Amino acid sequence: MRLALGIRYNGQAYDGWQSQPSGRTVQDKLQAALSQFADQPISTLCAGRTDAGVHALMQVVHFDTTAVRAPVSWVRGTNSFLPDDIAVQWAQPVPDQFHCRASALTRRYVYVLSQSPVRPSLEAGRVGWSMRVLDGDAMRAAAAMLLGRHDFSSFRASACQALSPVKEMRRIAISRHGDTERCRWHVEFEADAFLHHMIRNIMGCLVRIGQGREQPEWMREVLEARSRLAAAPTFSPNGLYFLGPLYAAAWGLPPEATIEGGGAAYDGPP
């Protein structure tokens, strides 16, 4: 039987998603918990790998097993073996043809940025930070230049394993929450797929533009350069959240994971 799970986690304590010899990754913790609950080795695949310090509101994984349990039991039983900062949200049997990565129609992230004269304290590790006031209109003008299908090599990490740097950016929405110099910015991204560090590298450029250190037109120059050397330094992982992939409703997943259902919404740091 093939099962899909929706997972939420705070990535502060982990070396990213993908399993590593240290064992300090989200995948390592999830597979250990699943294996204990199922009483057999469980190996998972995920919809989108996240870096160290990056969070997820709706990571989707799938795995094959001969263990027979009710969906609610997979949720509660697995959670009983997981650390407090990782939790299964739902479990759903799926056809053998379902693949959490290949079946995804789109993927979404949000970057949460605190604009404040002083660094975050209570939200440390869960939001990015700009000490300077940001110009939202300038950032939106720059972001518009990234929409559509482009070669995103300028925003690609050297360790990226993607076969092609060409991706389709479908949406970037920038919103400000609060009217004083102390406020929060949400930058939402949607694309068919993302390159390694792509969003953090774009954020580095957007913040530089928002702070007035570059003009919005600079973003087009960076994009067309197709060189990582042209872009700003990689921005902090702290405020990055994987909102999750979206699938066709025909797979029978919960509404928060489907195109028709609108997907999981971001409602503030967990």
Automatic annotation (TrEMBL):
Catalyzed reactions: uridine(38/39/40) in tRNA = pseudouridine(38/39/40) in tRNA
Keyword tRNA processing among record annotations: yes
Catalytic residues of the enzyme: 51 (nucleophile)
Residue intervals of the Pseudouridine synthase I TruA alpha/beta domain: 8-101, 142-243
Chain positions recorded as substrate binding sites: 109
Database matches in PANTHER family: PSEUDOURIDYLATE SYNTHASE, TRNA PSEUDOURIDINE SYNTHASE-LIKE 1
Name recorded for this polypeptide: tRNA pseudouridine synthase A
Organism expressing this protein natively: Variovorax ureilyticus
